[in-house]
Amino acid sequence: MRWNLVDMLRGIAVLLVLFRHHPSGGVLGEVGWLGVDLFFVISGFLVSGLIFDEARATGRFMALRFLIRRAFKIQPSFLALIGITALAMWATDRQDPPLNYIAELLFFQNYHEGLWSHTWSLAVEEHFYLLVVGCTAALLRWRIKLTWRAFFISCVLGMFFFTTLRALAWTAHPFQVLTHFYPSHLRMDSLLAGVLLAGWHRHRPGSFSALFPTGRSYLLLLAVLLFLPTVLLPFGSFWMYTIGLSTAYVGGMVLVGLAVERSTSMEHGSRDPLSKGLAWIGGISYNTYLWHLFVLLLVEMVTQRFGLQHGWVELAGFVALALLAGWLTTVLVERPALRIRNAVVPSWQRSITRINREGGHGEGDPQ
Questions:
Q1: Helix residue ranges, H only, the chain
Q2: Cβ proximity of 123 and 108 under 8 Å
Q3: What is the pTM of this model?
Q4: What is the pLDDT of residues 97-109, one digit of tens each?
């Protein structure tokens, strides 16, 4: 299912990141880093939702197939970025240590310097995917069935665990972005919040549907209040880094829950031009995020020559070109890769459809 309002949230998230990384981002730039945390909640919700759906429908989970399909989604555009980066560095006589390339390609650039400062978030997501896939496969292999209560408690304890790790890291040595903000073991709770929301949506749809439509205004106000600590507290302070990040992902859960429920109740996508535009940006948000710093470097080279650097003209050009780059790589790289993926490694839904057409059922398939 495609939730248009979730795409809108992704569009808002990537725009926040763009404003964050430009000197003229203003107020949006100050809080723009929250876009990544919103991405984490959305990603945790969407990816774990795929796992829940497969396990519930088939009684099993093909971990290797899932990871291969995720690789087809993530890797082609990412490898294109790394390849173009390497060519650009060669053309400009710049050199980076080989370990920086290895860090990018093996996704540990959030523990060791890579080629780009923003790809740390991809590493966090990759590490989290591996963790969730491994846990799911182990539970199914050992035939351990978690009740909703056990699942809920496990997620809450996991989020508390990551918050505790952040508190210990902050007290151990002074806050630095590289050591406190990027490491996976200090940031996975945002993704885990998305998993909890997906579990609630799949396993308790009645209470999920009952809450979000009835109190939309109050829930929107609640989300704003939950984001306030990260906005009002100094970046990197103890309370912002521990409690603030935690309330932020709870606020993200509220927004994603509202977006999912509202999208489900709408017969058609919003016809409002702003909403449609944000949803379109959300559809190309991954590639826009990947390429935006590369675009920013090129834009700054041009604007510096004409004396237009760090102004609104540069900001507008940067945002427009970053979106253009995201759209082009989505069309030229991501979509062809996904067509190949669907042909070579079909989804479990298509596999079931094919088996049923052939007149048989595989083990674990619905009878």
A1: 4-20, 26-31, 34-58, 63-91, 98-105, 120-141, 148-172, 188-203, 205-214, 216-232, 238-239, 245-265, 273-283, 285-305, 312-329, 335-344, 348-357
A2: yes
A3: 0.92
A4: 999 999 999 999 9
